[in-house]
Amino acid sequence: MKAAFYDRNGPADEVLQVAELPMPAPGPGEVLVRVKASGVNPSDVKSRSGLRAKMSWPRVIPQSDGAGVIEAIGAGVDPARVGERVWLWNGQWQRPFGTAAEYIALPAFQAPHLPDGVPYEAGACLGIPAMTAHRCVFADGPVAGQTILVTGGAGAVGHYAIQLARWGGAKVIATVSGADKATHAKAAGADYIVNYKSDDVAQAVKDITKGQGADRAIEVEFGGNLAVTLACLKTNGVIATYASSAVMEPKLPFYPMMFQGITLRMVLVYILPEAARRQSIQDINQALAQGALVHAIAETYPLDRIAAAHQAVESGKAIGNIVVTIA
Known about the structure:
Layout: E1 2-5, H1 12-15, E2 17-20, E3 30-40, H2 42-49, E4 65-73, E5 85-88, E6 103-107, H3 120-123, H4 126-138, E7 147-150, H5 156-167, E8 171-176, H6 179-188, E9 192-195, H7 201-208, E10 214-219, H8 222-232, E11 233-241, H9 254-260, E12 263-266, H10 274-289, E13 297-302, H11 306-315, E14 321-325
Parallel strand pairs: 7-8, 7-10, 8-9, 10-11, 11-12, 13-14
Antiparallel strand pairs: 1-2, 3-4, 3-6, 3-14, 4-5
Helix pairs in contact: 4-5, 4-10, 7-8
């Protein structure tokens, strides 16, 4: 099979290669998927560069998200699944061979059904961004009638968080850094847009909520935004955060948070509890089937240009997901 891989950490254009590698075979409980599209996430480029950790295996086929068709099954898997369209998650989590290849073998649970009419390129965007967004939105219960603050509303997770919160019956305030991103977040369904570069975010949220504050915040930059986020929240509000890149070891104002009754939830999509994972898959697929989700694909690249795809993610300039098409 044709696959992208790297044998050492380093810059994308120096370490990523594309060549023929042996095709995997599905083991017990596994499916063999013919990959049609593979999503590139920031975690993939961090792993390849060595920023997150050094290599755990002598060779890595990168990327955890993808979509394709089941072509073969291992023992214990329903034969009726052969030919099924699926989307993929955790393809390269704690294993060496991910979705940047023509084929991947992985546990059947990690290949949920991809509803008819959803393009493979869209399916390749769901694993990390949409599942992270779902957990952030719904981990602390239903959101119907609530006001949700989504920081970084134009980001991959923020884009899905806006849509899933709206799908769940909430009103959404999204923060962005410019006009193009404002348009992007508004198209996703945000009810209100606040430019954090030019506006007083806390005051804007208070004005929008008539002084009440937001019920929950979905936070892309926990440490850097903490003081402002706390000022945006109601008593007994919730912060669900999935990143803190600017301030990696934030100092918590314990007593202000305690007297405000703040719930702090850390979200790492790779280690979701099984019940949460199943609920996420069910809800995402239901929203897909209802046509409630739109997918922001900024750029697509063929497998032979995977280095350029990684560089596009690293640049931070793309508004939307970067996808590698396999076949």
